[in-house]
Amino acid sequence: MTPGRIDHDRYPPGYIRDILQSARTIAMVGASENPVRPSYIVTMYLMEKGYRVFPINPGKVGREIGGRKFLGSLTDVPEPIDIVDIFRNADAAGGIVDDALKLDPLPKVIWMQLGVRNDAAAVRAEAKGVKVVMNRCPKMEYGKLSGEWSWIGGFSGKLSSKKQRMHASGKFQSLGIGPRK
After folding, report:
1. Residue 76 main-chain phi, psi, to 5 deg
2. Of these four, 2, 52, 56, 140, which has the most CB atoms within 10 Å of its CB?
């Protein structure tokens, strides 16, 4: 691993939590309006959690998901992007990262979904100061950090005696992740 680069096989403690806590806008590249597709489920979940999600899919422009109109490209997003979430394959991820790196201002994070890893694209993004997460799902990571994951049968791999606390929304949170405002 190159000095100064993050280990994308094992993220440092707090890395993903800090990203999810600070983010407000997410451009979901490869979003779908089909309710059985993971990109639909993740889009709707993140919207429910209070993130401003912009669905990006050139084949769906003008249609809606969760009250948001599909946009054709990252350049169509009308505000700065905190996270570019890539729901495309690893080969396509390289071009999407290159498009994201042309934005002004740059996104804060490039996030590649489960099964998506493009190390060359990650190097390009990190060289410009953009954080990268690969082979992870923000819905799953949010669920783990908020304590919701265990409620749906997920196991974070950590056993803890830490007491979870109830958020005002009626949902448990254990690590400081809760609904966005």
Report:
1. -85, -10
2. 56
Q: What is the pTM of this model?
A: 0.83
- For 31-61, give the secondary structure using H, E and C: CCCCCCCHHHHHHHHHHHCCCEEEEECHHHC
Q: What are φ and ψ of residue 35, in 5° steps?
A: -65, -10
Structure-model confidence comparison of residues 46 and 164, the more confident one = 46
Domain-located, residue 146 = no
Residue 48 domain flag: yes
55 to 12, 13, 88, 172: CA distances (angstroms): 29, 29, 13, 28
Where are the alpha helices (H) located in the chain, listed in sequence order? 15-22, 38-48, 90-100, 119-127, 138-146, 148-151
